[in-house]
Amino acid sequence: MGTRKRVHAFVRVKPTDDFAHEMIKYGGDNKTIDIHLKKDTRRGVVNNQQTDWSFKLDGVLHDASQDLVYETVAKDVVSQALNGYNGTIMCYGQTGAGKTYTMTGATENYKHRGILPRALQQVFKMIEECPTQAITVRVSYLEIYNESLFDLLSTLPYAEPSVTPMTIVESPQGVFIKGLSVHLTSQEEDAFSLLFEGETNRIIASHTMNKNSSRSHCIFTIYVEAHSRTLSDEKYITSKINLVDLAGSERLGKSGSEGRVLKEATYINKSLSFLEQAIIALGDQKRDHIPFRQCKLTHALKDSLGGNCNMVLVTNIYGEAAQLEETLSSLRFASRMKLVTTEPAINEKYDAERMVKNLEKELALLKQELAIHDSLANRTLVNYDPMDEIQIAEINSQVRRYLEGTLDEIDIINLRQIQEVFNQFRVVLSQQEQEVESALRRKYTLIDKNDFSAISAVQKAGLVDVDGHLVGEPDGQGFGLGVAPSSTRPGKKSKSKKMFKEQLSSLARKEGARSPVSGKDLDASTSKTQLTPSSKDGDVKDMLLQDRETSSIEPLASESPKEELHPPRPSTPPAKPVAFEDFKNERGSEINRIFKENKSILNERRKRASETTQRINAIKREIDMTKEALNFHKSLREKQGEYENKGLMIIDEEEFLLILKLKDLKKQYRTEYQDLQDLRAEIQYCQHLVDQCRHRLLTEFDIWYNESFFVPEDLQVALKPGDSIRPGMMPLSRILSLGEDDQDRFSRLQQTMLPEGPDSVSFYNAKVKTEQKHNYLKTMMGLQQTHRK
After folding, report:
1. Hey, which of 13, 318, 398, 639 would disulfide with 323, CB 3.0 to 4.6 Å?
2. What's an example of a GO molecular-function annotation for this chain (predicted)?
């Protein structure tokens, strides 16, 4: 095992314009942070309130860039992971203090990426620098939301859905999540795609302190397995990196959480409280029991907290005076974490397949060495291989002859032969015992002397006297009770007949399974089929011949029109309106059909929106009329004098009914208005689809028109499917534009003109692919809802 080392704790201060310079000060070593709090004068003259705190940590990151944070916090942990050491990096702090920004960063900007994407990049870069090792990388993404476990990568199409809920299981190898999917990533772009997929599935909410507050704890795990490319080395190392983004603790009075967000905050604060209790217990050397199982978070991180792991804590705090109490609480947690010790060690394992191959190779070398020693000692014909059946049979024969006396001695060759000789002695002895016992059973009825029930039964039958002698035994020579063989007992048929019947029944079952003909009608059916007239066979043959002729003629008939489909090109191109109609009926028929469908859907949505607008206007007019009637009743009541009963206004029944009617009208108005908003969104989307189809239709028509009437015929042959375009016959940009849309063109330009350099290509590619996938899913869901309506 490795030596024990303390957890590294860093503090990152969120940049702010309202920094409390008088209350928060940093030490000159950039590892100390001092907090000064003014005394509360409301407590009187005698006031023992503590006003100064000093926290010694491993580093204070103030106004630090994402590059500096990663270099300081995570780079060493990730590099040691490829040497076999487990690692954990955890972000802790108040809600809105920048934990998710530190861990994940801003996915829209490559420069602002966080620890997690940078760790993935470092892992794959180090893999490229290790050509002597075959390294595989797998990732998983776990979310703990309201004390329930969720797989953030379960939405992938190839991920198998979990039938049972995920559970935390402990084994001698450590703690693992049963039911959590682990995905193999062979390149950096695939890992980024999995990261962005999981990020889109996270649960977030908004409150007064953070517009995009994470409402769950998330653990992104990178599993590394490194095998040596040298086949003789059976050792390999495994490691995992846990990147933990904790949900932020929050004071409900400041965040103003309500409803579902309030329930989430309760679970978050509860789990963070249990986490702090576990940290306090780990820091106390006298404690024997650590409460890991109080919540799912501490149970899942049992290996990371005080186990075989290099652990780093990043505490995110505010620099404002209004959040000073939460800042003190976070710094206390960081100082307690520094008291925790871990025992990191290299995770070495052995490859069973390679071990077997190495042992076989070593065995072959030892056999060769034995052969050399035998030749030097003048010992020939010594075989050290395992004995085959022929050799074992020969030893058995020698043992039998030795026991019979026909063989004086058995020649000893090697140790393996000695062991087999003793083994054959045991086999022969066992066989002789069985033969003796079977011979006695054929001749006598054997009774065990210790079986008192059998002895009493024989005595009652009068076969044995009290002393145990057989009845009628004269002078010690009597007769025995013979037992007839089982094959000669009456009332039982021979085994051969029984087996024959079973074979017949099984054969009948097989025939019955093949055809519905019964066993009795088998002969009759065969005779009937043989006596069937052969006139129908000729008809069948004629039909088969006709089918073959038509099948051979059809390809020729289908191929001949293809050559005549394209008439000779006219000397002058036709008018574009005429050609456009031909294009819509031939090559552009599919696009034209989609265009018409989208246009009909758009017209139907516009019609529904117009009807909804008319209903809204009618409801609005009725609301205005009802309000006028209520105002009239109110003015009439004021003129007549208002009546009160225990502080409640007394109104007549007509006015009460008007109030109820106004309430219902407003409810109808809101419902219709919401439907109108949804219809407008659908109209906008459908209009976009119609414009896109129209643009595609016109673009394809231009291409078709130019190719059909302006491109030379020899070039048209090269442009057919299956043919290749020779260099120089058509401009490359023209060829690319035939199958490239705006998104593809953007991706191509992005790869060649990225400002951040080539390292950001995989990052942006994964981001674009994830956005394309989710946009497609949203579009399909919208279309499904449209068809349902």
Report:
1. 318
2. ATP binding
381 confidence band (pLDDT: 50, 70, 90):
low
pTM score, whole prediction: 0.54
Q: What is the pLDDT of residue 11?
A: 94
Cα–Cα distance between 442 and 480 in angstroms, integer? 12
Q: Which residues are registered as beta bridge partners of 364?
A: none
Are 537 and 529 within 8 A, CB to CB?
no
How far is the C-alpha of 167 from the C-alpha of 106, rounded, in Å? 32
Cβ–Cβ under 8 Å, residues 478 and 469: yes
Read off the pLDDT band of 313 (50, 70, 90): very high
- Write out the DSSP string of 648-711: EE---HHHHHHHHHHHHHHHHHHHHHHHHHHHHHHHHHHHHHHHHHHHHHHHHHHHHHHHHHTS
Query: Tens of pLDDT along 529-544?
Result: 333 333 334 443 344 3
Give the pLDDT confidence score for residue 44 in this predicted structure.
58
Distances (CA, A) of 544 to 138, 391, 547, 554: 58, 63, 5, 15
* N-term to C-term CA, the chain: 65
96 is in an annotated binding site: yes
Which residues lie closer than 8 Å to 707 by C-beta, 6 or more apart? Answer: 716, 719
Cα distance between residue 747 and residue 772, in whole Å: 12
136-140, 400-404, 634-638, 747-751: segment of lowest average pLDDT: 747-751
The per-residue pLDDT for 548 is 41
Q: Specify whether the CB–CB gap between 67 and 117 falls below 8 A.
A: no
- Lookup: tokens for 270: 């509860």
- Please tell me whether 519 is known to bind a ligand: no
Cβ–Cβ contacts within 10 Å for residue 21, how many? 8
> Strand, helix or coil at 602?
helix
pLDDT at position 530 is 37
User: Please, which pLDDT band fits residue 702 given cuts at 50, 70 and 90?
Assistant: confident
Q: What is the model's pLDDT at position 716?
A: 57
Chain-centre distance of CA 741, in angstroms? 32
Distances (CA, A) of 26 to 73, 303, 469: 19, 33, 109
**Cα–Cα distance measured from residue 80 to residue 84, given in angstroms and rounded to the nearest whole number:** 7
Burial class of residue 425 in the structure, from the number of CB atoms within 10 Å of its CB (0-12 exposed, 13-18 middle, 19+ buried): middle
97 is in an annotated binding site: yes
What is the DSSP secondary-structure string of 106-155? -TT-STTB-HHHHHHHHHHHHHHT-TTEEEEEEEEEEEEETTEEEETTTT
Tens digits of residue pLDDT in 176-199: 888 888 999 988 888 988 998 888
Any idea how long the chain is?
789
pLDDT at 77 over 90: yes
| DSSP assignments along 189-250, one per residue | HHHHHHHHHHHHTS-EEEETTEEEEE-SEEEEEEEEEEEESSTT--EEEEEEEEEEEPPPB-
Residue 521 has which token pair? 């009608």
95 assigned ligand-binding residue = yes
| Cβ–Cβ under 8 Å, residues 221 and 142 | yes
* CA dihedral for 348, 352, 353, 355, sign (positive or negative): positive
d(CA 756, CA 762) in angstroms, rounded, equals 12
Question: Please, what is the angle between helix 761-788 and helix 188-200, to 10°?
Answer: 40
Q: Which two tokens stand for residue 7?
A: 């957890």
125 is in an annotated binding site: no
**Please, which residues have CB within 8 angstroms of residue 592's CB and are 6 or more apart in sequence?**
584, 697
Q: Judge whether 419 is annotated as a binding position.
A: no
Could you tell me which residue, 572 or 672, shows the higher pLDDT? 672
**DSSP-based three-state secondary structure for 449:** coil
Compute the distance between CA of residue 219 and CA of residue 357 in angstroms, rounded to an integer. 39
C-alpha closest to that of 187 among 238, 104, 123, 108: 123
Distance separating alpha carbons of residues 781 and 638, to the nearest angstrom: 56
